Amino acid sequence: MDQQTKVQVLKDLIRINTANDHEKQAAVYLQRLFKDYGISSQLEEYAPDRDNLVAELDSGQEGPVLVLAGHLDTVALGDRDHWDHDPLSADEVNGDIYGRGSVDMKSGLAAMAITLIELKEAGLPQRGKLRFLGTVGEELGAMGSEQLTKQGFVDDATAMIVGEPTGGDIVYANNGSIGYTVKSFGKSVHSSMPQTGINAVENLAQFVVAEKHAFDDAPASPVLGKPVHSVNVFKGGSQLNIIPDYAEAQGNIRPVPECDNEDCIKRIQQTVDQLNQQPGVQLKLAVRFSFRPVANDPDGEFVQLVKTAHQQAFGSAPAMNVIHGASDASNYIHAVQCPMLLVGAGDWSLAHQVNEHVAVDNYLKVNATYENVAKQYLA
How far, CA to CA in Å, does 201 sit from each of 37, 246, 274, 279, 374? Predict the structure, then answer.
């Protein structure tokens, strides 16, 4: 596939509006592209107009299974008046392509799809399988990767690359993410007689104070540090002269392997249980989502292979990074323990921003990196 066609594939994807919904349109576009090059694929519906896409090159020979995974959705477009180029225009200016998802992560998605096409044209792989996963809903709950994990599409994976924007560098570890709600139940009375009621806001405020110390003795990861945690939403009360009978707080935790999701949730539950021992306090914990941390050995064999593949494409060694955000890999790790790296095109700092854009050169070099990895790993 020539460079102009590769750039056009990315532009076509950016021009499909998949902002938090309607991913099927992008999935169908890629399915047709695969079909044009003799690659079979299948749609896996999550909801109406929301389909995941699975494609595969099978050598017919025993061997490793390399999975290239990305998400089809983007965040909301934002106020179009604040963009210098319309977020669905895919305008190319001075070597950069502008548009929502250009960085996060339609550039990675396009580069992965093209990798399958170019390997197919080269009569590869020689052994094992190369699989492509395009998922829905990563930005708001990662429902697509959860569905494909449950359906068994990663059970046989021996290595995986998730195409989040890293500029081509390697992210070898990332935190998980836990979202939770704590509800406080009280008794409503007139504010002139607070002693006869139960103030749900006051009781919930005790939780916010206690939560700050719930992880004081938590073990730290040598790579990711201690779990990051915070309470970020607080709602309670309805009227100035009424003691509130209900309040709720929403918090977020970024677990690490050494203090994993179960341990983190246990610590919050223990905090709630201890406060509930006080007269009049009635708190209830509800976990909204729980994504696991992912940590790889930076000196591992697959990491070294990807470093070599990057150097071949970029002419220099990649940076080795960690991040505190989660990705679809946090779902895939439920099913399989194998190397899972984040490697994609574009500058992470531009993701979700007005005037999001990716450098064409970076996009093409990341595509070359993927192809180098696939050829070497499946040779």
Answer: 61, 7, 17, 15, 55
